[in-house]
Write a structure and sequence with these properties.
heterodimer; A: about 270 residues; alpha/beta; Rossmann fold; Transcription Regulator spoIIAA; seven-stranded parallel beta sheet; 8 helices; 12 strands; about 35% helix; elongated; disordered N terminus; B: about 300 residues; Heat Shock Protein 90; 2 domains; eleven-stranded mixed beta sheet; 9 helices; about 25% strand
Chain lengths: ~270, ~300
């Protein structure tokens, strides 16, 4: 889906060699992407480099380096190259977060901004295990300025959609939490198929108590899964939150053959 | 769905190029699908269609509009004969009645009523019909009725019959908040963007949940079937909160309109049908620049 558009990756799928762009709309988006990126780096012992106004809470403070965004470019390049080389020798990957919003605000800041961007691109492309996110406050720059900077990046990074899927034993089924939309259909389809393949023929339960959103495509996907397994009993939707129940009832259970309402949500 | 539904759309065009750009692919698609294909139009239009269709046009029956649209009852009878004579093949018709400028409204109204009757009479025929209206020749009242009588409208130009409801108005760009999106990973941002603004407009929690579901569906469709760039736009107009998903893909005549209930969630058309249940109004607007699906919620 959307394969013709510019590349867009959720933060958990960034890989070394990726030089990604984040033009955040608000603090929430900025925080969600940055924290997920840094947390994954801390967990795997990566070297973390913060360039410009990036404040994060990290557990391994000794593995984090902070540099000002307005450092003189050749000095900046030397420092960054040395950091990457040191990490490389220690067998560590590098995660770089640059916030160059300050440069966007400078009058005629574009040339020096692009110089820094190209420096980062060289660093990421040099063959060591470096992953970089360049983030900008979308509100701080004119659209043409943002477009010029964006063009330096091969991809855009977005926050991870949150969907939790857990197997349940008694009753047999899945517990879903978070938000379920087209970005996660494949994952649900996979989990559900493997569950149904080894089910004993009894009803399969989906516990939706923690699910905050379900899209219409997912209702179709569940109905299709039930239809493919006619002798395996219905899919029972347990503990459906009120707001989801209202949507399902607007559709009507009769349009969802093979799905059944189960036990009510504890909240009513 | 047990029986195939009628797809009855209108094309509002200005100039021969717009006319051909919409009707030639519509007719050619019918020939390729093995439909029984008819073009009913004034003689000059038929000539242009014949020329533009080339060899595909050899399998189309051309009928002169002056003879075909003599009286509504006869026209309905003739349509009925076409459908029965070709069953179980599907009938596909591009029709255009000449609308004489000097025609009194009472006379024209017989024909706009005929358009509505087609929806009932042929509801389960599976036929596909596109009725063309020349924007420069047809009066505003006929156009307004035409927009009501058809399940979808392709309009190459600006709507000139701005209705009383804000739902049909084009907003001033200054009042619009917009958010581009390009992948399914951004659908949650589309939801956040729309619900934050709808909540400020005063929609309650139940209505917000309905709108959130509807806009996710429409945006997902734009990702699946539309073309970049895509964006969601929101604005308000009096009591109404409006939310529009736009993309630059070509609207496919015959795509589900969601007006008729599907048999189940497995049928195509289930998504748009549900969207229509969840919001107060849905407007689909398509032209050569792309497709816009507008959702209206009243406070």
């Amino acid at each position: 889906m959307g394969s013709r558009g510019p590349l867009c990756r959720p933060v958990s799928e960034l890989k070394p060699g990726d030089h990604a762009w984040l033009a955040y709309r608000d603090e929430d988006e900025r925080r969600r992407v940055t924290e997920a990126f840094i947390a994954a780096g801390s967990a795997s012992g990566d070297r973390i480099i913060l360039l410009g106004d990036v404040r994060v809470e990290t557990t391994g403070e000794d593995r984090t380096t902070s540099l000002p965004w307005d450092a003189e470019p050749s000095a900046l390049e030397r420092t960054l190259t040395a950091e990457v080389a040191a990490a490389d020798r220690a067998g560590r990957s590098v995660r770089l977060v640059a916030d160059l919003t300050g440069a966007l605000r400078e009058p005629d800041g574009l040339p020096s901004l692009l110089e820094r961007e190209r420096l980062i691109a060289r660093l990421v492309g040099a063959g060591s295990a470096v992953t970089a996110i360049c983030r900008f406050d979308r509100r701080a720059g004119a659209p043409d300025l943002l477009a010029a900077v964006r063009a330096e990046h091969a991809m855009r990074v977005v926050a991870d959609p949150v969907l939790r899927i857990d197997r349940t034993r008694d009753p047999t089924g899945l517990a879903l939490g978070g938000e379920l939309d087209a970005s996660r259909h494949a994952e649900l389809h996979r989990e559900l198929s493997s569950l149904l393949a080894c089910s004993d023929g009894g009803p399969v339960h989906l516990d939706l108590a923690e699910l905050e959103f379900i899209d219409l495509g997912a209702l179709g996907l569940l109905t299709a899964a039930a239809a493919r397994h006619p002798r395996r009993g219905p899919l029972v939707l347990d503990r459906v939150p009120e707001r989801l129940r209202a949507i399902i009832e607007a559709v009507g259970w009769d349009k969802l053959p093979g799905l059944r309402p189960g036990v009510p949500h504890p909240g009513g | 769905m047990t029986e195939p539904a009628l797809e009855h759309g209108a094309l509002v065009y200005g100039g021969l190029a717009e006319y051909l750009a919409a009707l030639v692919p519509f007719l050619r698609e019918g020939v390729e699908a093995g439909d029984a294909v008819f073009a009913v139009a004034p003689a000059a239009r038929l000539e242009a269609l014949r020329e533009a269709l080339g060899r595909a046009g050899d399998r189309i029956t051309y009928l002169e509009a002056e003879a075909f649209y003599r009286c509504p009852a006869q026209t309905l009878r003739d349509y009925d004969r076409l459908v029965r004579a070709h069953a179980p093949r599907r009938v596909r018709v591009a029709g255009e009645r000449p609308w004489p400028a000097e025609e009194p409204w009472a006379r024209a109204a017989e024909w706009t009523r005929c358009e509505s009757l087609i929806n009932t009479v042929f509801a389960r025929s599976g036929a596909r019909a596109m009725c063309a209206y020349d924007r420069d020749a047809v009066n505003a009242r006929v156009l307004r009725e035409a927009r009501r009588a058809h399940l979808w409208v392709i309009d190459g130009g600006a709507p000139e019959d701005v209705a009383a409801s804000g739902a049909d108005r084009r907003p001033s760009p200054l009042d619009v908040d917009r958010l581009p999106f390009e992948s399914a990973f951004e659908l949650y941002q589309v939801r956040r963007f729309v619900t934050a603004r709808a909540s400020r407009h005063g929609l309650d929690a139940a209505r917000l949940a309905a709108l959130e579901t509807a806009v996710t569906e429409v945006a997902t469709n734009a990702l699946k079937h539309g073309a970049a760039p895509r964006e969601v736009r929101v604005w308000s107009h009096g009591e109404e909160f409006l939310c529009e998903v736009g993309d630059h893909g070509r609207w496919r005549p015959g795509a589900p309109t969601g007006l008729l209930p599907p048999g189940s969630a497995l049928d195509s058309g289930f998504g748009l049908w549900t969207v229509r249940l969840l919001v107060d109004a849905v407007r689909v607007h398509a032209d050569r620049a792309g497709t816009r699906v507008r959702l209206v919620m009243r406070r």
